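Changelog entry: the MTH1187 family thiamine-binding protein record was regenerated in this release. Current contents:
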Amino acid sequence: MTPLGVGEDVGEYVADAVRVVRASGLPHRTDAMFTSVEGEWDEVMDVVRRAVAAVEARAPRVSLVLKADIRPGVTDGLTAKVETVERHLAG
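Regenerated C-alpha cells:
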C-alpha cells in the first residue's frame, strides 16, 4: 500500500502498516516493494483492513495493490516457493 498526499518519503507510513502485519502473528515477508501475508482468507483480509486503517489514520488517501493466491491445503508457500527457485538456481 502507498499513502498518497504525504510527500515522497512514505517509509514511516508504510511502517505503520507493517507493524500491523507483524503483530498479527501470520507468516509474512516484507521486501522493497511488497509485503506478503499467508493465512486463511478472513484472517488475512482482517490484517489488510487493519493495516489500511493504520495508514489511513495519518494519510489523506491510500492506494492498495492486492494479489491473492488461493490454494486450499497449501501452507508455508512463502518459504517453499523461494526454496524451489533457489534449488533450481543452484542446480
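The mean pLDDT is 94.
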